[in-house]
Amino acid sequence: MGTLRPNSVAVHEEKDGKVAAEHHQELDAGALFVLKSRGSWLHCGYHLSTSIVAPALLSLPYAFTFLGWTAGILCLVIGALVTFYSYNLISLVLEHHAQLGHRHLRFRDMAHDILGPRWGRYFVGPIQFMVCYGAVVACTLLGGQCMKAIYLLSQPNGTMKLYEFVIIFGCFMLILAQIPSFHSLRHINLVSLVLSLTYSACATAASIHIGSSSKGPEKDYSLTGNSEDRFFGMLNAIAIIATTYGNGIIPEIQATVAPPVKGKMFKGLCVCYGVVTVTFFSVAISGYWAFGNKAEGQILTNFLDNGNPLVPKWFILMTNIFTMLQLSAVGVVYLQPTNEVLERTLSDAKSTEFSARNAVPRLISRSLSVVIATTIAAMLPFFGDINAVIGAFGFMPLDFILPVVFFNLTFKPSKRSPIFWLNISIAIVFSILGVLAAIAAVRQISLDAKTYRLFANV
Q: Are 61 and 224 in contact (CB under 8 A)?
C-alpha cells in the first residue's frame, strides 16, 4: 500500500488507549508546525463547521430558482447525505492507515500511497491548492462586498470603491494569517460556528418577516427562461449546492486531532452536520418561500428594494457584520494548505517553531500569499464566475469522487456487496455532474465576459 513518506507519521494505537508514536522519518516543517495533532473531536467539529457552513449558504435560495421546490429540496438532501457519507469514508480510510502505522496528514499523501505518486503530485495536490486558494480569494472579495454594503447603508452617496474595501478586508486577513497552526484556530472557529448560526437565523427571520408582509415581492415559483437556459441554470444550481457542501481539506482537519484518532472525526462530523441541517435548510427554504424566482445570488441583497430596506436598517447592518466576520475565519481555514506548503518549503524542522530562522520566512511568505489573494480579489470582482469552474473541477473530485475511490481501493469490498456498487455509482454520477457543471460555468463566463472590467466597482 505504498511506502512511508516523510510527511506520514508511524503510529501504533494500543488496546489500553495509549499511543506510542515513532517518527521513522522526521516530519517536515509543514506537518510539524501547521498540522499539529493536538485537537479533540469537538475542535474537529469547529474546523469542519467553519469550512462547510460558510456564507456561500446564502446563495441557496438562488439555486432553488433554477430547480423549484421539489428538485431544490431533493438536491439539498442528497448533497447532505452524500457528503456526510463520503467524508465518513475518507475518515475511515485515514483511521485504517493510522492503525497500520501510516497516519496521513494531507490529501496528497493519501493519493500518493493509495493511487500512486503521480496522482498525489500532479492531480490531487494542484487541484486542492486551486480550490483552497480560490476560496481564500473568494472570501476576500465577499468580505469586501459586505463592507461596501455596510458602508452604503450608512453613507448612501458614498464614493468609496469596491476594491478599496477588498484591500481593507485583506489587511484584516493579513493579521489572521499569522496564526501559527491549524489547531490554533480552534477558538476562532468556535466563534465562526456561532456567527454562522447567527447570520443564518437573521437571514431566515428577515425572509419570513418580508414574506409575511406586503413589502415583499409577489410570490412566483415558476422556472423562467427557455429550455436551454433552464438546463444550464439547473447545472449551475447543482454546482452551487455541491460547492456549498464542499470541503476539500478533510485529511488536514483530521490531522489536527490528537491520537488515537478512531471515532473522533465521526463525532466532529455529527457536530458539523447538525449545524448544516439547521442553517442550510432554514435559509434555503425561507429565502425561496419569501422571494420565489426573484431570489438574488446572495439573499441579503433581497432585503433592499431599490435601496430601501425591507427590514430595519440596523438588522441588515448586523447581519452583514456577522457574515463579514465569519468570512475572515473561513478564509484563514482555507489558507492552511497554502501555509503548510510554504512552511514545508521555507522552514527548518530542526529549528524551533518561533526561532528567527522560521518566524521571518513565515511572516514574509504568509503575508505575500494574502497580498496576492487580495490583489486578485480587488482586480477581478467577477472572480465568482472563475471560482465556479475551479469548484466544478475541484470540489467534485475531492469531496464526492475520491473518497469512495479511496475506500474501495483500501478496503476492497466484494463486487457483490451493495457498498461497492453504491460507491461506484456515486463516483460515476458525480464525475458526469462535475463535467457538466464545468461546461455550465465556462458558458456563464462567456455570457458575462462583455461586462468584465478590472477593478470594477460592482
A: no
Among the listed residues 224, 283, 352, 225, the one whose alpha carbon sits nearest the alpha carbon of residue 58: 283
Query: What are the tens digits of pLDDT across the range 293-345?
Result: 999 888 999 998 887 889 999 999 999 999 999 999 999 999 999 999 999 99
| pTM (predicted TM-score) | 0.91
Contact 231, 436 (CB under 8 A): no
Q: Do 454 and 382 contact (CB within 8 A), yes or no?
A: no
Whole-number Å distance between alpha carbons of 250 and 257: 11
**Buried-state track 289-323, b at ≥16 Cβ within 10 A, e below 16:** bbbbbbbbebbbebbbeeeebbbeeebbeebbbbb
Give me the count of residues in the chain. 458
Residue 340 grid coordinates: 503548510
**Contact, 138 vs 383, CB < 8 A?**
yes
Q: Which residue has the cell 423549484?
A: 68
Measured between alpha carbons, how far is 217 from 290 in angstroms, rounded to an integer?
A: 8
Query: Residue 418 corresponds to which cell in the numbers above?
Result: 451493495
Instruction: Provide CB contacts within 8 A for 182, sequence distance 6+.
Output: 34, 35, 36, 47, 252, 253, 255, 256, 333, 336
Cα 419 to the center of its chain, rounded Å: 27
